[in-house]
Specification:
The chain is of the alpha/beta class. Helices cover 38% and strands 17% of the residues.
């Protein structure tokens, strides 16, 4: 006989879970007690949104569900940003929520929420366990749902009296992964389409990749001379210095790459939905009928034909599709090889940052410096804001599992994600980028990095405004500033107050020595860059936008 709390932990261990992220609560004390005697590391976070984002980052970098525990009511609602990110970005994770006792249901008891109703629209599956004996069954299903088809977040509510009840349940077994693979008919059809194509392109996105899949994709690209683009915030899927890399397909796309995609006669879309952001508001591919022939590869059949009618629909995960197609050979030299070279040359020019700018700190030389000094396996994380443009456009990602950033556009992600990444890969350099507004949303998780001795480096780009919103505001309502100004703390002093290392950079030349001191400190470190608000984009200032020049 075991308690429900013990059965939850047994099921996690059976499924290979080594770490959970949580904010503690009295509603799931039985689970915390069971974790005490387990081999699972419990990372205690400072706010539930940060904890959920850590779980998302774990799932994003590993393909295995990140695990998060929060308490009922405000704990559960605070975690919702992480669930929304995981849903939109197709990330496997499982959120456990402590729940009121079953006897108090329907009375609006203390912190009572119907989690099926609350999380149903944004989770892949939301449920509640009424009987502790069903814990092995529900958790096996949860791992399967989170990882199969289009991955996503599962939410499980845990009534506190269920967690303390004693029951006899079968021993937990690991879930069985579900794979979807292409058939020979689909592969033959793709070969035939490529044989007739004059201007094809492959666009990579989504999840369910891996190191082996990305390596095989590079082989395929070379063999077929294919230009390869990557979707918004999926840049780790293809080496940016590879001669077949054409650039990122997302916000602020290289106009030459956009023109090429629009004029392409065959788009091989592997792994993602190609939603509003990567499709440039559904202009690169028109919905429902693209101008191009579309081969859409996706692990969830429900996504095939939902927004775009494909010429060929392939229900397969990216890894399985690439494994199956890797041995196929072109019949003759591809006609588009020169286009591929030109697209890569255009990318290199597009991704060369400006050396100057308004103010005393210029982001271009800083990104160039990081490109030179960071190891190829360094992990970069970020949230949302105009500061992220410098990373996405100019940093050269080389390997899989080196980027963690929300395609959903959520702020506050970079710092908690960096904590999770460093816990997962302590031997690797982890750098988080955040704007001043972005950092203040989950910057308290810097304390988590200090508590667990995780020496991340957080770069806070401080321009004292909500930059992206101000940019749009100046474009739509020039000169009418409202609701976008910020008054900030001394971020470097804040980092030192937490017990970390803090630096302030007010001139470009100060960044390199500050970064080296931060790295040498061996502690969680924060570098605050005082950026002129005029430096809102790499090519246009706020004044340019306001004056519509």
């Amino acid at each position: 006989m075991k308690t429900g709390g013990q059965l939850i932990v047994d099921a996690l261990e059976a499924n290979g879970v080594e770490r959970v992220f949580c904010v503690p609560g009295e509603s799931y004390l039985a689970v915390l007690d069971a974790l005490h005697d387990s081999k699972i590391e419990t990372v205690v976070c400072r706010q539930e949104g940060g904890a959920a984002m850590m779980a998302d980052c774990h799932g994003r970098l590993t393909g295995r569900p990140g695990i998060c525990f929060v308490t009922r009511g405000p704990g559960a609602t605070n975690a919702s940003p992480g669930i929304h990110i995981a849903r939109q970005d197709s990330i496997p994770m499982i959120l456990f929520i402590g729940q009121i006792a079953q006897k108090a249901r329907e009375r609006e008891a203390f912190q009572e929420i119907d989690y099926r109703a609350f999380y149903g629209p944004i989770a892949k599956w939301a449920t509640e366990i009424d009987d502790a004996a069903r814990i092995p069954e529900i958790l096996t299903r949860a791992f399967s749902v989170a990882t199969s088809g289009r991955p996503g977040p599962v939410v499980i509510a845990l009534p506190e009296d269920m967690l303390t009840s004693l029951t006899d349940a079968p021993e937990a077994l690991p879930y069985t992964p579900v794979e979807t693979r292409p058939g020979n008919a689909e592969l033959d059809r793709l070969e035939a389409l490529l044989a007739k194509a004059k201007r094809p392109i492959a666009i990579l996105g989504g999840t369910r990749w891996g190191e082996q899949a990305t390596a095989r994709m590079k082989t395929i690209a070379h063999r077929w001379s294919l230009p390869v683009g990557v979707e918004f915030r999926r840049q780790m899927l293809f080496d940016h210095l590879d001669p077949n890399y054409a650039g990122d397909v997302g916000i602020g796309i290289n106009p030459k790459l956009a023109d090429y995609i629009k004029g392409s006669d065959l788009v091989l879309l592997i792994g993602d939905r190609f939603g509003e952001m990567p499709s440039s508001d559904y202009t690169l591919l028109k919905s429902p009928y693209p101008d191009q022939q579309l081969v859409h590869v996706h692990p969830d059949a429900g996504e095939l034909g939902r927004v775009y009618r494909p010429t060929l629909a392939v229900n397969a995960s990216p890894a399985a599709f690439i494994e199956a197609f890797a041995d196929r050979q072109p019949k003759g030299a591809p006609a588009w090889a020169e286009d591929t070279k030109q697209l890569h040359a255009s990318y290199l020019k597009w991704s060369t940052p400006p050396e100057t700018g308004p103010g005393q700190v210029w982001m271009g030389p800083i990104i160039n410096y990081l490109n030179k000094v960071l190891p190829d396996d360094a992990i970069l994380t970020n949230g949302a804001g105009n500061y992220a443009t410098w990373v996405h456009r100019f940093y050269k990602f080389r390997h899989y599992a080196t980027q963690a950033a929300p395609a959903s556009g959520s702020m506050g992600y970079g710092t908690p994600a960096a904590v999770a990444a460093k816990a997962l890969y302590p031997e690797r350099t982890v750098v988080a980028f955040a704007g001043d507004g972005c950092f203040m949303m989950n910057g308290q998780e810097f304390a988590t990095a200090v508590q667990y001795n995780l020496p991340i480096i957080v770069i806070v780009v401080n321009n004292s405004i909500f930059g992206t919103i101000r940019m749009h505001q100046e474009r739509e309502y020039p000169g009418r500033v409202s609701g976008t100004g910020l008054v900030n703390p001394d971020f470097a002093a804040l980092a030192r107050a937490y017990g970390g290392h803090g630096e302030t950079v007010e001139k470009t030349a100060d960044f390199a020595p500050a970064f080296e001191r931060a790295r040498a400190s061996g502690r969680p470190a924060l570098i605050e860059i005082k950026l002129d608000p005029e430096a809102i984009t790499p090519s246009r200032t706020l004044s340019d936008i306001r004056d519509k020049r």
